[in-house]
Amino acid sequence: MNSKINGIKYFRAGDVIWADSTGKYHLTIILEDQTDDNHQECIPICNFSGTEPHEHLNYVIPIGTYNLPDTWWTKHDQAKPENWIICQPKDCIKAFDYSPESVVGNLKEDCPVLYVFLCEKTKNCKIAPRLKKFCDCDSNELDEAFDDSDCECQNRPGID
After folding, report:
1. CB-based burial of residue 70 (10 Å sphere; 0-12 exposed, 13-18 middle, 19+ buried)?
2. For residue 18, what are the β-bridge partners?
3. Strands 60-64 and 3-5: what pairing?
4. Buried-most residue among 34, 57, 77, 124 (CB within 10 A)?
5. DSSP 100-122
6. Dihedral of CA 69/71/45/57: which sign?
7. CA separation for the pair 128, 132 (Å, rounded)
8. Are 108 and 78 spatial neighbours (Cβ–Cβ below 8 Å)?
9. Bridge partners of 30?
């Protein structure tokens, strides 16, 4: 699942792990490849949530009853009937807090339809530049959004 450089395993963009970035463990999508250069820096992430997110959160993408792979649910009763993807602008994890051995799958490989859906929903959002590498976008295809008027997320800044 993850890449090896000089015999050391690294996280790859799209890897899914269980991470505690919000005080609770959630399935978490790694958005950028880990390198020697960013080993101790925060790697951007998005989280899955099986509970409807609070209104104060921005960039919430409902995926409804989309079935995530059974292999991602490492414990009994973790799967929820509905899910959301939450991509907060500053959410990240430090690679040294987690082991690449903890990868349960890769969104790009295991769920290509969901991967395209996530990228499409966020391409007109202010968060889009953060997803540029993850979504393999050409530099002129995904210009930085200055407002979220065309953002297709459920919650976004400025929505009443």
Report:
1. exposed
2. 27
3. unpaired
4. 34
5. GGG--EEHHHH-HHHHHHHHHHH
6. positive
7. 6
8. no
9. 45
- Enter the tokens of residue 101: 């051995």
Handedness of CA 142, 147, 150, 152 (dihedral sign): positive
Tens-binned pLDDT, residue by residue, of the chain (160 aa): 555 555 578 899 999 999 986 678 889 999 998 887 655 578 899 999 988 888 888 899 999 889 899 899 887 778 888 899 999 888 988 888 888 888 999 999 999 999 999 998 888 888 888 888 888 875 445 555 667 888 888 888 765 4
Q: What's the token pair of residue 117?
A: 């859906």
Q: Are 87 and 131 in contact (CB under 8 A)?
A: yes
Pairing of strands 8-10, 92-94: unpaired
Check if the beta carbon of residue 19 is closer than 8 Å to that of residue 45. yes
The CA distances from residue 67 to 79, 99, 105, 110, in Å, are 9, 25, 14, 11
pTM of the model: 0.85
> Strand 8-10 to strand 3-5: parallel, antiparallel, or no bridges (unpaired)?
antiparallel
Residues sharing a CB contact under 8 Å with residue 149, sequence separation 6 or more, in sequence order: 124
CA distances from 141 to 46, 56, 112, 129, 145 (A): 21, 29, 19, 11, 12
